Amino acid sequence: METNGTYPKLTEILRSVFDDDTLVASPTLAVKDVPNWDSLRTIRLVLTIEKTYGVRFSASEIVELHNVGDLARLIENKL
């Protein structure tokens, strides 16, 4: 599944959720790479993505995400 078109929108979402205009969504970007990425921001990120893309994620799907590449593939699979 092609995820390249997903990254620009994810960049916008990440910048909004984390209030950081320097963030750029990339396949390897992970929690450890973003200051202040905590459980509350994860919830906000997931809710924003669900609303933006009109998709829903299960808890088991979210737990399996290790980086933004995994997230982009999950979004593409839901669309």
Notable traits:
single chain; 79 residues; mainly alpha; 4 helices; 56% helix
Can you walk me through this structure?
- Helix content is 56%, strand content 0%.
- It has 79 residues and is mostly helical.
- It has a single domain, classed as ACP-like (Non-ribosomal Peptide Synthetase Peptidyl Carrier Protein, Chain A, Orthogonal Bundle), CATH 1.10.1200.10.
- The longest helix is centred in the middle third of the chain and has 15 residues.
- The radius of gyration is 11 Å and the shape is globular.
- 19% of the residues are buried.
Number of strands: 0
Tell me what portion of residues adopts beta-strand conformation: under 5%
The third-level CATH topology is Non-ribosomal Peptide Synthetase Peptidyl Carrier Protein, Chain A
Give the topology string: H per helix, E per strand: HHHH
**What do we call the CATH homologous superfamily?**
ACP-like
Number of helices: 4
Percent range of helical residues: 55-70%
Separation of the first and last Cα atoms: 11 Å
The major sheet is characterized as: none
Inertia-based shape: globular
Mean pLDDT: 93
Name the poorly predicted regions. none
**CATH architecture designation:** Orthogonal Bundle
Rg from C-alpha positions?
A: 11 Å
**In the residues, how many domains can be counted?**
1
Quaternary structure of the protein: single chain
Output the structural class.
mainly alpha
CATH level 1 name: Mainly Alpha
